[in-house]
Amino acid sequence: VLTKGESTKQAILDRALFIASTDGLEGLSIGGLARDVGMSKSGLFAHFHSKEQLQLDTLRHAVERFVGKVIAPALKAPRGEARLRALFDHWLLWERDEFPGGCVVQTAIVEFDDREGPVRSFLLESWRDLVDTVTNILRAGISVGAFRADLDVELCAFELMNIVSGYRRHWRFFRDSDAELLARASLAALLRRARL
Amino acid sequence: VLTKGESTKQAILDRALFIASTDGLEGLSIGGLARDVGMSKSGLFAHFHSKEQLQLDTLRHAVERFVGKVIAPALKAPRGEARLRALFDHWLLWERDEFPGGCVVQTAIVEFDDREGPVRSFLLESWRDLVDTVTNILRAGISVGAFRADLDVELCAFELMNIVSGYRRHWRFFRDSDAELLARASLAALLRRARL
What we know:
Number of helices of chain A: 9
Strand content of chain A: under 5%
Structural class of chain A: mainly alpha
Oligomer: homodimer
Shape of chain A: elongated
Helix content of chain A: over 70%
Number of strands of chain A: 0
């Protein structure tokens, strides 16, 4: 159960995610967010203290939501292809429907590729967790005999993430109605290589 | 032969590309660029008139350079796998070495995915030209019997571009020394599927 302060903070972070999705993490300011949620700037400072803390809390909020909406449903599916497909399906929905401008973490990776500091460190750590999750799903598939024992799980995770990035580019940037077809055809080719 | 005005403009655009590579097109301003190249702001306004025009000219400059450094060497290689590999090799070098923060067009695609206007239109057009170039290279490979006649060239182009994006993410963001290994292993898998 959340306290009132905590649930206010969650509501503010929901709004921050929405803004950062289109304007980037750098487009997020305590002043702008305060106006947006109808709070005073000093009220917001009490929650976040600095722009950097706001960026970090927003990213942490995004990662928690991603775990709930993409990772958790995948882990409920049986090991093997079903689990990999569940991950992929929820991930495409996440990129398409969750935020107006797509996943804030993907945007932040471009924004912070050459800016040192805690935001970049947090992104690196989160991405490594994600790679671990994907490779664990692939290894679970190997353990139940769905995927080849000699499958290069690091390469396969790299390729799965590349398909999601390609989907995002086609869907967000080109507004290409074939984005999903291309992504699914690409996944099918990856699965053919991964199978026993 | 370039006139003095043209070669000054080229030198300014070289610098603009350098800045936009790390700061994004939105991080590029006529005032900032003027300070950077040691010209007056009004002198720079005479060349570019507006921030939007500066962004467009910078992108056009990037595309011209990409054609010279990536497309032209690829088209000099024999049709088939050699040409596709030449394209890929020069493209990785482009992402790695050409600018301090990687290709400005890739960054701009994230910056302008939801901003309508001439910059977005130019990016769309340039990207379509690039997709056409890649699919033509694949079709040339089919015509010389290097690739399967039923190869889905659109899908293959999508996947090739996804590998380059993945390389960029691993190299720029994770600073992962395995970035090139992953990208080359991914290309090898793509070529195995494409071959007769």
